[in-house]
Amino acid sequence: MAKRTINSQVYKTLLARSGNKCAFPGCPNSLFNQKYEFIAQLCHIEGVAGERFNPKLSDEQINSYENIMFMCYEHHVETNDEIKFTVKVLKEMKVEHEGKYILSPMVVSMAHIFSLRKETEEYWKRVEIVNSTEHVVPDLKIDINAQATYDELNDELNSCLNALESLFSVFDKTDTDKYWEIFNLGFPNHLTISRVLIEQMRIKYYEANLANNPHDNAIKNKLEELRKLFIENTAKSAGHVD
Predict the structure, then answer these.
(1) For labeling, which of 16, 56, 67, 179 is most exposed (least CB within 10 Å)?
(2) List of E strands, the chain
(3) Of 108, 126, 159, which marks where a domain is finished?
(4) Number of domains the chain is built from
(5) Which domain holds residue 225?
């Protein structure tokens, strides 16, 4: 699935040519309210996933200026009808709307939109620099992938747990007999609890993500899949070894 990484200049150009209006023909809804808060939605013509998704496009093409427009909530929902609102129809809609304002661009302060994003990006860049150049014992450092997504981190964590389980199997029987409760109760139970917590965290992450992107079918489908698996494979059967 493509990532929602959109260049700041793309945002600025889109907003400048928006006229502070939803791109849907005849819609009077503004992108910003009287408090200068952004209240519209960013819409992909060929979707990140779901409606009008084109697997041939790169992440850069999906998040390019030509493939994005701003709409109000109501018309973002309406244009999810990909039979009526084809790629061709939406591209024509975008060109027609922006043509009204291209010679008189709107000047928008981007500070309130990009401040949090900039702060986050700068933080993880700092993490990357510290980890790669300032580690106290470089030869023994744990590499940190500062650009990893939540799902990538989740996969890495599960791999670590799997490796930990494999390590238990190499212990000599005399060790497991001597520390029977640790090897047969303590380790397995803590591993199981860890996996349950990871599954819960992942569901809550997708719930929060969906709240911010209520019409993203890819997020909806993933959340539905995770919830179903959690009920069927975890809530019903996860238990302590005793």
Answers:
(1) 56
(2) 41-44, 68-71
(3) 108
(4) 2
(5) 148-235
